[in-house]
Amino acid sequence: MNLFKTMLSRHRIWLLCILTFAVMPFVKPAFLSANNMQGIMTGMVPYGIVALGLAMTLITGEINISIGAVMAFSGVIFTTLLPRFTFLPAMAAALLACALVGMVDGFFVAYKKLPAFLVSVAVMTGVRGLALAVCGSKPVQVTNPLIAQLNLMKAGPVPVLFVLLLALVFLLEFFLKRTQTGRNMYAVGGAGDVASAYGLNVEKYKFWALTFSSFMAGLGGIALVARMNSGSPSVGEDAMPSVLPMIVIGGTSISGGKGGMVRTLSGILLINLIFNIMSMFNIYVNIQNLIKGSILLIIVVADKYLENKDRKI
User: Fold this and answer.
1) Which stretches within the chain are classed as H helix?
2) Which residues pair with 155 in a beta bridge?
3) Helices 160-178 and 145-152: crossing angle, nearest 10°?
4) Interatomic CA distance for residues 159 and 153, integer angstroms
5) Is the Cβ–Cβ distance between 165 and 49 less than 8 Å?
6) Distance between CA atoms of residues 237 and 16, nearest Å
7) Dist CA 225 CA 243 (whole Å)
8) φ, ψ (nearest 5 deg) of residue 155
9) Of 72, 74, 111, 229, which residue is most buried, by most CB within 10 angstroms?
């Protein structure tokens, strides 16, 4: 019985997803249509990639709220350079720029001990301004046919970009759970003072975690370009209220030291199912935003409650 309760608690989000797939076809038969399933999978990719990067940062006990601005920055750099260069150089330049943004963030947070929230607000404002300057405050349309093909490419019935998301999930899960560096990141987030006393370079882990989250936000921005066929300085404004619930629902604690990528994937799937269902029922965008905000508030309060409960134990 205890084993059953443990399994139920550990895999409850996956069970909710399975229950959704079992019930929704009776409510909306079109839910299981090929177009809707492919729409869910492609919809998971941009913010899903960003969620994986932010989850890594949360595991080390820090946060990066500039992810939406970095997505926009990456997208406009990529689309601006694409006509002048080929696909890979344009993507490499965009990702390098985003990684440099993350390094700036990580330097001030990890080494100068400034509050992550304040630093990332400053970075968010500056990077959003850079995105506006790069593209002249207007979306940049993509004319390269490879981008449209990338969004439509499939491995059988599964979109290739979704396969990329799954590959990143399992690669990062292996890194966190099977390498010493990954396990050290849990130690840094769980008890930084203790980890430092044992000789771990806490600042280094936090620095690279923040850099990685910006890099992944950049990759998510490029995936969003493939989906929208344009780069815009205004995208990603709802990134934080969309992405954070995915991560925390998946079991990653805001306070650090706890989480994983496979469980984050369950949160990504569940939140995207909720968004998809709201769209199928034609719920107004403003109401959808209210629901997103409510979900985020409930999750933050629940996470803090569980954190205080663990401390009492």
Assistant:
1) 2-10, 12-27, 34-59, 67-81, 87-106, 116-135, 145-152, 160-178, 180-190, 192-197, 202-228, 239-249, 261-280, 285-312
2) 158
3) 70
4) 6
5) yes
6) 28
7) 18
8) -105, 90
9) 74
- What are the distances in angstroms from CA 185 to CA 2, 35, 294, 296? 30, 39, 30, 25
Is the distance from CB of 223 to CB of 47 less than 8 angstroms? no
pLDDT digits (tens, 9 = 90+) for 100-142: 999 999 999 999 999 999 999 999 999 999 999 988 878 888 8
Q: Average the pLDDT over 177-203 and give the result.
A: 93
CB 200 within 8 A of CB 184: yes
136, two tokens? 């002249």
Q: Identify the DSSP state of 156.
A: T
Report the DSSP beta bridge partners of residue 158: 155
Q: Which of 241, 256, 248 is nearest to 291 (CA)?
A: 241
Quote the CA–CA distance of 94 and 232 in Å, as a whole number. Answer: 14
* Separation of alpha carbons 76 and 230, rounded Å: 8
Q: Spell out the domains of the chain, with CATH numbers in brackets.
A: 44-312 (1.10.3470)
Report residue 86 as tokens: 């080929």
- CA end-to-end distance (rounded Å), the chain: 22
Q: How far apart are CA 179 and CA 280, in angstroms?
A: 42
Residue 287, burial from CB neighbour count under 10 angstroms (0-12, 13-18, 19+): exposed
- The residues near 84 (Cβ < 8 Å, ≥ 6 apart) are 90
- b/e 134-167 (16+ beta carbons within 10 angstroms → b): bbeeebbebeeeebeebbeeeeeeebbbbbbbbe
Collapsing DSSP states into helix, strand and coil, what is residue 30?
A: helix
pLDDT tens digits, one per residue of 260-313:
999 999 999 999 999 899 989 888 877 887 887 787 788 777 766 665 665 555
Cα 161 to Cα 24, 112, 164, 270: the distances in Å are: 25, 38, 5, 18
